[in-house]
Write a structure and sequence with these properties.
The protein is of the alpha/beta class and 379 residues long. It has 17 helices and 13 strands. The strands form 5 sheets. A 4-stranded parallel beta sheet has the order 3-2-1-11. The chain has a 3-stranded parallel beta sheet with strand order 8-9-10. α3 links the parallel β1 and β2. The longest helix has 18 residues.
Length: 379
């Protein structure tokens, strides 16, 4: 797979670095033109892309048929507030609800059901689970993570996310840990602006990073993708945060992506940004600068989730940088190898089975009943 990617024209090699969103429910002329121009390594689906199960499966099949290299096809299907499939499948329970009921088996069931549902629809990865630790104090913050966390301590988060990942990836669907290195202590939502996390390096290692560290060291090597947040970490990036410089979001920060995640923690696999259209980045820099800085920080793939014009601007800027030699071939090949390694694990979709899809939706309903859960909160 790696040799196949490096043999592509430079334009398509750069396209592999992009994980993009699409505007609607079908491949109309504009959407087709976008895909044909970028030839992205991945496509992420949102609620705006979802009509019916058959429509969604058809859309993903059409994307797969159009692109010259098998794409990653992903979605944020966490459950609770972040449930992109609620129009077509029984709404799935929030992580917090499962944890409140002390239901490790429920976490495994949610992972298994989610994995099979997504494979039936044509996906091969899920941007979940969230690894944030939400204590009583952090619950009071306005960072949007209140219901998305599996625990109030490193051990709790580790336990629930481990069994969730086993359920999810046991179906052949790949997960993604997010949002490294942990933004549970951030006071704002990164969709709006950059959350500042004032924890020291040692505090992060003992708290928010502890579940990541344990999962990275597992012998079965089940973690193959990590999403880096847009949080600001002034006590980690001392040079920028304390010496009078501008605080750099983690997703654009070499000190976080390369020095901490890769060098110190020894993580060797795929790394993706959070959405570069979020306010935390948009208020910090234009997409042209953000795309280049994210790649220079050590990111393998750049997530740009909504606007075709911004996707094109990011792509054209990175392509220009590669043509002019700012992006070195060796560095490009490092990311292409990690992308290739991830794609080598991707399994083809299951044949679509409407009856089985309905059965799985009913299983979600039974799980919700067990947890006394309804979308929007506890009953």
């Amino acid at each position: 797979m790696f040799e196949a990617l490096t043999s592509l024209p430079l334009e398509q090699q750069i396209g592999q670095l992009f994980y993009i969103g699409l505007p609607g429910t079908e491949l109309d002329a504009d959407t087709r033109a976008l895909l044909e121009e970028i030839k992205p390594g991945g496509v992420i689906i949102f609620g705006r892309n979802v009509g019916t199960p058959v429509q969604l499966r058809g859309l993903l099949d059409d994307i797969r048929a159009l692109l010259p290299v098998e794409p990653m096809l992903g979605i944020d299907q966490e459950g609770g507030l972040v449930d992109r499939l609620r129009r077509i499948c029984t709404p799935m329970p929030a992580a917090r609800t499962i944890r409140q009921h002390g239901d490790l088996a429920g976490a495994r069931s949610l992972g298994r059901i989610t994995g099979e549902v997504l494979r039936l629809l044509g996906f091969n990865m899920n941007f979940a689970p969230v690894m944030s630790i939400m204590t009583d104090e952090r619950d009071l913050l306005s960072n949007g993570l209140y219901s998305r966390s599996y625990g109030r301590s490193p051990g709790e988060v580790l336990g629930y996310t481990t069994v969730y990942m086993r359920g999810l990836q046991g179906t052949g669907l790949l997960g993604c840990l997010k949002h490294f290195p942990g933004i549970g202590a951030g006071e704002v939502d990164s969709h709006e602006e950059m959350p500042i996390v004032h924890l020291t390096h040692d505090d992060l290692m003992q708290q928010d990073l502890a579940p990541y560290i344990e999962l990275f060291q597992r012998e079965d090597d089940r973690v193959r993708c990590v999403m880096v947040s847009h949080g600001g970490f002034p006590n980690i990036d001392i040079r920028q945060g304390v010496a009078g410089g501008t605080l750099v979001p983690a997703s654009l920060n070499h000190a976080i992506v390369t020095t901490l995640l890769r060098d110190e923690l020894g993580y060797k696999h795929l790394v993706v940004t959070d959405d570069l259209e979020m306010g935390a980045i948009a208020k910090h820099c234009e997409i042209e600068e953000g795309a280049v800085r994210a790649f220079e920080a050590g990111q393998d793939m750049l997530l740009i989730c909504s606007r075709p014009d911004i996707i094109r601007r990011g792509y054209q800027t990175l392509l220009k940088s590669a043509r002019e030699g700012r992006i070195k071939t060796e560095r490009l090949h490092q990311s292409l190898r990690r992308i290739a390694d991830f794609k080598s694990l991707v399994q083809p979709p299951l044949p679509f089975d409407a009856a089985r899809f309905k059965q799985l939706s009913d299983e979600v309903e039974l799980l919700n009943h067990k947890l006394n859960y309804s979308y929007g909160g506890r009953i």
